[in-house]
Automatic annotation (TrEMBL):
One of its GO terms (molecular function) is CD4 receptor binding. It comes from Exaiptasia diaphana. Residues 202-283, 376-438 form the Ig-like domain. One of its GO terms (biological process) is negative regulation of B cell receptor signaling pathway. This is Uncharacterized protein. One of its GO terms (cellular component) is recycling endosome. It comes from the Eukaryota. Coiled coil: none annotated. Residues 1-127 form the MAM domain.
């Protein structure tokens, strides 16, 4: 290899000499790679010339910029015997140009007489990849090009570094694949063909996209297949490792679980091993309301207060009626889950029941107790009394209402308690006024 960039003067030469003995045969070739490139944005003139001679005979000549990258050339040698080969690079005015050679050989070229194309499989399913490889034998040098055809239509073009390709067919049937190798100098080697059979996929009649089933009933999914039988049918449930091998798959929904819907697919495998999977079938389990709860703002209210109840339940489909029941009587039945009203019931204990319902039926009831209390009422208190200062006096009262009742005595205008209960005893009284609160 030599490089003619070492000197930028016009007319600078670089030379390599080699004496080679050429056999007296018809197909003797010299091959080498050459590089002639200049950064033209910095060019001050033409690059120069690469000249190859055998003795006094010019056998190769290139002038000027040949572009980036190495170029290959094969030169047929028509002479024989010992010859001195000279590789001469002559610089022109371009100080940035490079001229080089590499990988030189002299050899006898002969065309390959055997071509063999092989496939990773000779029977495949529709749209399934198969690898083709093309090889030649009894030839030199390596083939420069491999043309791959499918049913006489050019499929791919490769080189000696790419003689394996991946192909697939979207049309069922027998397809003929052909490999046609060739070299630039010797031309085309023999072709070779291989037949690959592409099998159609089985046809699957899709189950319905969505199936609704009520809790306690069954649903039967059917996977029908046509094509080349016999068929193997496998049902799969999404996010489950469990499978079922059957044309018919019956879903028992006697108990609604926390997973109230599932996605199913059926995969059909025919006698050729070709598979097709159906679209997803979503099975919804409709169930009565459950997990019923009643919430209240207060478990105890006064007769003058408000009753507030809210009812919640999970269901599929959603609850469409909430029944609020008191003492066996329906107080409210509507899609509203709330009761919010002024109390009209006398003091006592009341058990409120919520019974939710959807299109499947009534769900489980739940009950909440609300205690209604009567407010305290002072029905009697001792009359005003006149007593001697320093004496003892007893004051009494009577109060009605819901237990427990707290009775507190205070002096009028005072804040501290004098005593609790229906009777107040005062010792050594002075002038005072007593008030009662309860």
């Amino acid at each position: 290899m030599f490089n003619a960039r070492a000197h930028s003067s016009y007319g600078t030469n670089a030379q390599v000499y080699k004496t080679i003995t050429i056999p007296a045969k018809d197909n003797i070739y010299m091959r080498f790679y050459y590089f002639m490139y200049s950064d033209m944005s910095k060019s001050y003139g033409s690059m120069g010339t690469l000249l190859v001679t055998a003795g006094s005979t010019n056998i190769f000549s290139k002038t000027g910029n040949q572009g980036k990258g190495w170029k290959k050339t094969d030169i047929k040698l028509t002479m024989s015997g010992s010859k001195k080969f000279t590789f001469k690079a002559n610089k022109d005015r371009d100080p940035y140009g490079d001229i080089a050679i590499d990988d030189l050989w002299v050899a006898e070229y002969y065309k390959a007489n055997i071509t063999n194309v092989t496939a990773s499989a000779t029977e495949v399913c529709l749209n399934e990849n198969v690898n083709l490889e093309c090889n030649t034998y009894n030839g030199f040098p390596e083939q420069d090009e491999y043309l791959f055809y499918k049913d006489d239509q050019l499929l791919a073009r490769g080189n000696n570094a790419l003689k394996t390709i991946s192909v697939k067919s979207s049309i069922a049937g027998n397809h003929t694949y052909q490999c046609s190798p060739s070299t630039d100098i010797l031309g085309q080697a023999p072709n070779d063909t291989i037949i690959i059979t592409t099998h159609a996929l089985p046809t699957v009649s899709n189950p319905p996209g969505r199936v609704d089933v009520n809790e306690g009933s069954k649903v039967n999914l059917v996977c029908n297949a046509t094509g080349t039988g016999p068929f193997t049918i496998v049902w799969n449930k999404k996010y489950s490792s469990q499978t079922w091998t059957s044309k018919n798959y019956t879903i028992e929904s006697a108990l609604a679980s926390s997973d109230h819907y599932s996605k199913f697919t059926c995969t059909v495998t025919d006698a050729n091993g070709c598979k097709r999977t159906s679209p997803e079938t979503i099975v919804y389990v409709n169930y009565k309301p459950k997990n019923t709860n009643i919430y209240t703002s207060a478990g105890t209210i006064c007769e003058t207060g408000k009753i507030y109840l809210s009812c919640y339940a999970s269901a599929r489909p959603s609850v469409n009626e909430y029944r609020f029941i008191l003492n066996g009587k329906v107080v409210q039945a509507s899609s509203t889950r709330v009761i919010n009203k002024q109390n009209t019931y006398p003091a006592g204990s009341y058990n409120w029941t919520c019974s939710p319902k959807n299109t499947v039926g009534f769900g489980l009831n739940t009950t909440k107790e609300i205690i209604i209390k009567a407010p305290p009422n002072i029905t009697w208190i001792s009359d005003n009394q006149t007593v001697a200062e320093g004496s003892k006096v007893i004051i009494s009262c009577n109060v009605t209402g819901s237990d427990p009742i707290t009775i507190t005595w205070k002096k009028v205008g005072g804040s501290s308690s004098l005593g609790n209960g229906p009777n107040l005893t005062l010792e050594n009284v002075t002038t005072a006024a007593i008030e009662l609160s309860s």
